[in-house]
# Entry
Amino acid sequence: MLNLDEIETLLPGLTALRRDLHAHPELAFEEKRTAGIVAQALRDIGLEVTTGIGGTGVVGVLRRGQSDRTIGLRADMDALPFEEETKLPYASTHAGIFHGCGHDGHTAMLLGAAQYLAAGGDFSGTVNFIFQPAEEGRGGAREMIRDGLFERFPCDRVFALHNWPDLPAGSIRTRPGPIMASADKFLITISGRGGHAALPHQTPDVLLAAAELVQQLNTIVARRIPATEAAVLSVTRVAGGQTHNVLPATCEIVGTVRTFAPDVQDRIEASLRAMAEGVALSTETDIRVDYDRYYPATINDAEAAHIALAAAVRICDDVGEADAPAFTSEDFSFMLQACPGAYIWLGQKSADHAAPLHNPKYDFNDGVMPLGVALLASLVHAELPAS
# Structure
């Protein structure tokens, strides 16, 4: 049985740790200080520790009993490249780098779970505590897997928590099947010759071509994808030209695509490329499309999702199946492609913590840490029962 009072006693230390990490954020594959703190904390409680996995990744291993069952618990460690505006006493000390997604809290909670379980958690089997670099767009999970993560540290199932400001503090949600979208990005480069703005008949107009293409791209989801499928295509940047009387020689269109099914990704990419070819032909420009499917959709194993919900019910009153997946993305998707598991949302919204993720005023809600630690420990007890 979980000792919730004992977990509560960990909160002051975890809060201090979390706020120290918040004040010293590190970007993808640069998490050397963070990884060092994590590794030392795991050694201090007696775990076997391996560092440098997939760059700056750390794995701590805790074994108990005779079972050959294994579980992986993952936390991400990296921060985001933008400026914090919270004015908190523990605000980032590194200009332009900010824990605006709560990975400092995820790291602290997983260390708390390791501390609690190492001190006497009642289970039989092996727990792999996985501290991952570079979740924010750089594919740290993929790099850990390429570095032999699951061969070196086999897991029957793997789980991850993410704080969720859309849900009230003290709540837990997950769902079988899709829970986070795939993430694609595109860069469309339109090239002409450039020339005098008073003589547009002498040069292909790359800005006009861009305007036509942007309009067409925004019809793909509405007219090329069935209404029963969920997808988003957003153009996020159009850049070209420097002054009022020159037609530029080049223009760029940048955007993202989110969906949950590979066949929908295929259809959107094919439509985007076909539209680019058509506009190039009609405007006498050259158009190059660079399309990158950098994160797959995060798909929970159905059994693992139900195990997670059952584990949550043991320690929380506000537990339920998420109504719908989110269109944000997550590179835990790579781990779920390699190993059955589930991604879980931990509510954090309160009067003092209302800012959304990736917002300059965001801060992780330290008050939810005991619940997060308890959920991670409950997952271990569910997957690795002592008898």
Notes: The mean pLDDT is 96. The chain has two domains: 4-180+297-383, 183-295. The CA atoms of residues 87 and 97 lie 14 Å apart. The two ends are 12 Å apart (CA to CA).
